[in-house]
Each structure stands twice: as C-alpha cells, then as structure tokens.
Design the sequence.
C-alpha cells in the first residue's frame, strides 16, 4: 500500500513499494481516489490527470484532488523521467532468427533508455493500463530489438556476425539505428545497446563447416571408389586383367570403401550433434 503522510490523506508514489516506469491510481492497492484529499508530484516525476479522455499535465508539488478526479474514470498517472533504465535482454534461439546460411542464432546483452516524453509514452503505451513495470518495459523494448534484429540476421551468415568486422559492434550499431526513431515516437530515448554474447559460439559454427566439408569429401571418395570397382569388374569381364590381380584390387577397393563408409558414419553423427546445437 502507498503510505499515508503525517498530515493525513495525501497520496504519493512510493517507488520502493511500487517500482516501475508508470504508476496510476486507482489500482488494486489504492482502489479509489475518494479516500484522499491531495496528491504529491516529486521533481523526478511527471504527472497527468485524465480530463475528458485526455491527459493534462500537473506540475511538481502538492495538489488538491477535485471532484472530477474522484468521479468514475478519474485517474492520476505518475511517470518516472529522471531514471536511466539499464536492463538485460535476451533474443533466444527459440525466437527463430535465422542467418543467411540457415543457422538459428541468438544473442544477449543490455539496453539503456529513458522516458523523455511521458505524455507520448502514456498516450501510446499505457493509457489502458494501471501500471507499467520495469519488467514489462524491458519486454516491450526487447520485442523491438527482436524485430530489428530479424532482418539484420537474415542478411548475413553466422560466421559474418561473429567476425571482428561485423560482430557485436555491428549488431549494436544497426539495431540502434533501426529502433531509435521508432522509440522516439513513443517518447523513449534509446541511449545504448550492448551485445554481450552471440550463440551459437563461433567455434561451433566453424566446426560445423569443417565437418560438413569433410563429410562432402568422404561422400565424393565413396563415389570414386565405387567407380573404380565398377571399372575393375568391367576390365576383368573383358579379360584385360588376370584373376589374381583382380582379387587383390577388389579386396583393396572393398577395404577402402569400408573405411570410407565408417568415416561417413562418424562424421554424420558429429555433424548431427553440432546441428542440434546451432540450427
């Protein structure tokens, strides 16, 4: 509950008990404004009364609650404007971000932002809400980060997004440029985004490419051995080689084929295990 002041029925926002970006009354803890005579707006807050369906700003200080405030639909909104919000975010692989080479990628980091135009923020986002907590605000910003990242990730390979010339700095720059203008429309100033990590790691991606190349080479080797075996059978049937030489070469080809098949099986299992992690 919001604490009462010593002088009686004065309403103020307790940021410790009700943390978040926006706080409004009535709410579940303070169901009615009728129990109060005045309300306080701190210097770090911006406050708005609902008048005829529109938000009217109230300056810092102590103000009287009138009959229109206490009537049905009357609402007081407080918005925290001096605070810089720094919150972690994650774009997990389950969000379905795929690179140009079909790698399911994710990343995590943190973002910094603040409310610079609380009227636009309230009009755009929370006019129908009673509160807007830090967690809800973080989720809202994260959705915009995901939206901006989706097209970026689609344009590049997983390896490119890890490399120094691209990597975290590049993702930071592109996403910042992409969402800053949009957030400004909502009265939010986007200050910074920091990418701390990208998954899957570059090592897994490079291992996947290497094993895939080895597997393709092994498949080609298997085809080559089979062609040699077919040619050997043809030469023997046409009497171009003797039986003893045929048996020796045939045995050699069979051993080569068996070793290649074993190698293909091993590489396939390794590739499948890696693909489970990175795709």
Sequence:
């Amino acid at each position: 509950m919001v604490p009462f002041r010593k002088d009686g029925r004065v309403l103020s926002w307790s940021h410790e008990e009700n943390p978040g970006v926006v706080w409004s009354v009535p709410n579940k803890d303070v169901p009615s404004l009728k129990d109060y005579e005045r309300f306080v707006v701190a210097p770090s807050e911006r406050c708005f009364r609902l008048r005829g369906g529109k938000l009217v700003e109230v300056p810092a200080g102590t103000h009287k609650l009138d009959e229109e405030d206490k009537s049905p639909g009357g609402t007081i909104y407080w918005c925290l404007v001096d605070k810089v919000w720094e919150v972690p975010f994650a774009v997990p692989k389950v969000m379905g971000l795929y690179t140009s080479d079909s790698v399911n990628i994710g990343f995590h980091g943190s973002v910094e932002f603040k409310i610079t135009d609380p009227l636009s923020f309230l009009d755009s986002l929370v006019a129908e809400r009673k509160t807007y907590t830090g967690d809800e605000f973080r989720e809202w910003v994260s959705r915009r980060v995901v939206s901006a990242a989706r097209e970026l990730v689609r344009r590049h390979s997983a390896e490119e997004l890890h490399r120094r010339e691209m990597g975290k700095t590049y993702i930071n720059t592109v996403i910042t440029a992409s969402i800053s203008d949009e957030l400004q429309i909502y009265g939010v100033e986007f200050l910074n985004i920091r990418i701390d990590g990208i998954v899957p790691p570059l090592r897994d991606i490079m291992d996947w490419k290497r094993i895939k190349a080895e597997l393709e080479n092994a498949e080609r080797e298997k085809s080559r051995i089979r062609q040699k075996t077919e040619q050997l059978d043809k030469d023997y049937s046409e009497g171009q080689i003797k039986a003893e030489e045929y048996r020796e070469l045939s045995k050699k080809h069979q051993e080569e084929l068996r070793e290649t098949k074993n190698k293909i099986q091993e590489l396939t299992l390794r590739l499948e295990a890696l693909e489970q992690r990175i795709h």
Notes: Residues 1-7 have pLDDT under 50 and may be disordered. The longest helix spans residues 202-237.
